[in-house]
Specification:
Largest sheet: none
Oligomer: single chain
Distance between the termini: 19 Å
Order of helices and strands: HH
Shape: elongated
Number of helices: 2
Number of strands: 0
């Protein structure tokens, strides 16, 4: 039980990264099939998601000390 917070943050970050990886793969595959251009909303989604992941990890590390 002492490491439950660690496990929760790890699962949260791994889940978000795997979903982002799936989105990136799918969007690049679709862009390749339909002209090679990514939709700007997808790029904005990825930027916000990566900022959120950094925030989660930063909050965890900051709260740990």
């Amino acid at each position: 039980m002492a490491y439950m917070k660690d496990v929760i943050v790890l699962v949260l970050v791994l889940g978000l990264m795997s979903i982002l990886g799936l989105i990136i793969y799918d969007e690049f595959k679709m862009a390749n099939e339909h002209g090679g251009e990514l939709h700007p909303d997808i790029i904005a989604l990825l930027q916000m998601s990566l900022t959120g992941i950094i925030g989660v990890v930063g909050g965890y590390v900051g709260g740990k000390t």
